[in-house]
Amino acid sequence: MILRKCHLRLRMGLTDVSDGISFGLLGTVVARRGDSASTITGRKGLLLAILLLDGGEVVPIDDIADLMSSARATLYNSVKRLRTALGDTDESLIEGIKPGYRINITRDQLDLAVFEDLADAGFRAFRAGDLPTATARLRAALAQWRGNPLGGVVLPVQLKGHVQRMEELRLQALEDLNAAYIQLGQHREAVPGLAQLTAAHPLRERPHAIYMRALHLSGRQKDAQTVYWDICRRLNDELAAAPGPELRETYSELIRI
Q: Which positions are tagged coiled coil (predicted)?
């Protein structure tokens, strides 16, 4: 089984049981109804994550069993327990369809899909130069995050790529948001968040370039140069690599200003 790496293709149909329920993967795995939220952990959480990540498509039983390292009989029990936890008494939310199971929800019922859609809109607006729209969409996208994705679930190797993809999109959203802030003249406000972002990702070059620009525009030219030489040293010491073109060009531009 190869879970889809493109955007989730969640079904558009609604059933009575799915109406009013939503799910979260951008943090602990949760199910929500109204003001009530339940954390789904352990094997139930893993099963739910598998169904949600496959975007509403039918996931073959054998593939689920492989991901969960389960025998078929154990898997059937896990499905039963998950349906009970979700109140899926008529088995319409988690639908059994040969050769496996499908979860019937729409995109707006899953935080990951909402995040993807808002982030895409923000990325497009940023590229088009519509900075107010970009910042609004990217802030809304990032607000979907509650913590480490798929928290509370022991992930098989096959799902770890999904987590990496989620985290990469989040970083791209943070980078574009801060770049938009700077272009809007909000460079001083961007500095604290960029300091945290670069500390968390000491070898990621783009946030360092954005951070350098924010510091320079805030009148902290020496600090901006220190950021540059610090990451150059780390890249050399840890990766035996030189800074890429964006970092070099940003540094050259700033020392000319």
A: none
Q: How far is Cα 11 from Cα 253, in angstroms, rounded to an integer?
A: 48
Q: Give dist(CA 209, CA 157) in Å, integer.
A: 33
Dist. CA 73–CA 122, nearest whole Å? 45
What Rg, from alpha-carbon coordinates, does the chain have?
Answer: 22
Q: What angle do CA 108, 109, 113 make, to 5 degrees?
A: 60
C-alpha 241/C-alpha 204 separation (Å) is: 12
Q: What are phi and psi of 35, to 5 degrees?
A: -90, 0
Burial of 206 (0-12, 13-18, 19+ CB in 10 A): buried
Two tokens at 244?
Answer: 């890429």
Amino acid at 253: E
Strands (E), the chain: 21-24, 30-33, 36-39, 59-60, 94-97, 100-103
- For the chain, list residues with pLDDT below 70: 1-19
Per-residue model confidence (pLDDT) at position 235:
97
pLDDT score at 72: 86
- Rounded Cα–Cα distance for residues 110 and 122 (Å): 18
Given this model, what pLDDT does residue 240 score? 97
Query: Distance between CA 68 and CA 237 in Å, rounded?
Result: 40
Q: According to the model, what pLDDT value does residue 34 have?
A: 85
pLDDT in tens, 142-198: 999 999 999 989 999 999 999 999 999 999 999 999 999 999 999 999 999 999 999
Within 10 angstroms of residue 31's Cβ, the number of other Cβ atoms is: 21
Minimal CA–CA distance to 100: which of 72, 61, 51? Answer: 61
Say what the pLDDT of residue 145 is.
98
